[in-house]
Each structure stands twice: as structure tokens, then as C-alpha cells.
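Re: the multi-chain job from yesterday

Posting the exact lines I submitted so nobody has to dig through the queue logs.
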Amino acid sequence: MGLLSLFRKAPSSANLAKERLRIIVAQERGARGSPDFLPLLRRELLEVIRKYVNVDPSAVQITLGNEDGHEVLELSVFLPETQRIA
Amino acid sequence: MAEIIVVTSGKGGVGKTTTSASIACGLARRGKRVVVIDFDIGLRNLDLIMGCERRVVYDFVNVIQGDCSLKQALIKDKRIETLYVLAASQTRDKEALTSEGVRRVLDELANDGFEYIICDSPAGIEKGAHLAMYFADRAVVVVNPEISSVRDSDRILGLLASKTSRAEKGNGGVKEHLLLTRYNPRRVASGEMLSVDDVKEILGLDVIGVVPESPDVLSASNAGLPVILNDVSDASHAYEDAVARLLGETVPLRFVTEPKKGLFARIFGS
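And the result, C-alpha cells for all chains:
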């Protein structure tokens, strides 16, 4: 441990809890009121994608939004850095 | 006109029954006619906290199924004149509680002149919890300053905003209040525990009370004496404040900061 780190204050665990909660609560509130099939759709899509690319479960994001009066189903898949689609 | 208040949380073990018992006692001590109902079918516990477990003859489900009259099932508190308890059934049949049956009992209580009906919700988001909140006018959401409790109460807020009679009818919804329990100002000060403001900010609710972590809560349940009746306890004072706020009084928050140590305590204290 360096001498300086003695003076640097680590983020408190309460702050860590608050940040984690902020993110998860916002995410869950966003999902509220959206159709029930979204989690299932996400799971099935994840299975299909995983047949071809080994992605992390958190790499598939589905959001249902509203743009200019149209409902938009947005799907994004983050591919791992080292792997390219075969 | 009776006001129906649900005490709910999502997560178990955060202090719903302790809170229901104390709020009911606090309101009744101010002369209000109060009934507190245990909605935890199969896991009756409010009777123990209220200290009337040996006087339960008939329960909530008996009333719904017509085995007895409401009057026969209501247990009159021995300490406070205007306070009554309706115990949960110990049946394992969760279907025993029906929406229609609950509505009928609540209507009858209101017609009998009760001013406050406190519904002690079971943990979780199953039928018992759903019916405990369905007819409510207001909700006291009990939260511990702890990550899983906060998340679960946000789920409950979602249900209060959609799966209640008030939400469905669109007449303003259920009024929600936040009540923090097991609050430890020392740990908040040292950054180990979420603060009142943190929880308030995440959930976006007004705070109706902050009950400090206190050994008196366990002794109270051991004795079957709701902690609010232990007049020398900080927890009692905190619940008294919460009751005052429920009744619309403005009371400053207490027990949210660590008591300042005097010079003597700082030198000789632990």
C-alpha cells in the first residue's frame, strides 16, 4: 500500500449500494408496463445468438420505446472484443 | 369514512408487523377507532406481536367463509379501548382469501365505525400481499437501509401504482409513504449504510418515519407489547412521530444523526 493511498478515501460501501440501486431501479422501472413477453423474447434471442457467438447474458439489450408516435423495439447485441462472427 | 392503510415491503423481516402493531396502537392511543388485520394467511404472527395469541378463536378466513360473525372474530385489545385485532388464519389453503370476501369484511368494518383499518401485508408479491394492498387508500412502505430491501420496495411501488383498486379506478392512486426501520445513524455517518436521503432519492417517496435500530424492538416482541407502548424507547418515539405525520402533523425527523458525545464520553467512553 502506497503512502498516498492512506490519504485517498475509498468510495464508501453505502455509495456503492446507492449507485447499484440507482441503475437497477431505473432499469426495472423502465421494464414496468412494457409487454410481458419482452424477458422471454430476450432469453430466446440470447439462445439463438449464442449458437453463433458466445456473448454474455448482459450483452443483449431490448428496449421498447416511442419515437414520433411509433413504437420502436430496439435490440442491441454487444459482441465480445476478441471474437468476430464466423 | 374509514381509511385503509396497508403496511407493506416486498421483502420479509424488515418490520412490517412491528410497524403495523405500533401504528395501530399509536392511532388508537389518540382515540381513533382502529382495527389491525393480519393478511399473512398460513403464517399468523400479528397476534404474537400484539400479545393476544391466546385469545384467537376465530380468524379472518372464518369471517370470509361465514363460519362466524365479524364481531366474534374481532379481538379487543386489553390496553387500548378503541383497538381491535383480526388474526390471520393458519390454513394452508392460500385460496381461502378472496377479493370479494376481503372487500365485504372491509366494508363491514367501515360501517361499524372504524376510522382506520391497518392491513399488515405478508412478504412477497403473491395473493396475500396483493389483497392486503388492493383496497388501500394509503401505503406505508417499510424499508431497511439495505440494498435488497430497497429494490423489493420499488417492485411494491410498481404494484401499488397498477394493481390496486384506486389505481384501476384512476382516482389519484394509493398515497405512498416511506418508513425506514433498523436505521443506524452511526453506520450511516461512517458510510457503511444508506442514508434516509439516499433511500428517499432512489424511491422518490416522502418519509413518514425513521425508526432507529433498537434492542427494544426484540424485547417488545418477546413480551407481546407493541414497541410504541414502551415509552422510554427511541423506537417508540420514532413510531409516535410517524403516527403524527400520518395524521398530517409536521414533526421534524429525530434519531437520524448520531448523538454527539460529550468530552467525558470521548475520553473515557469506548
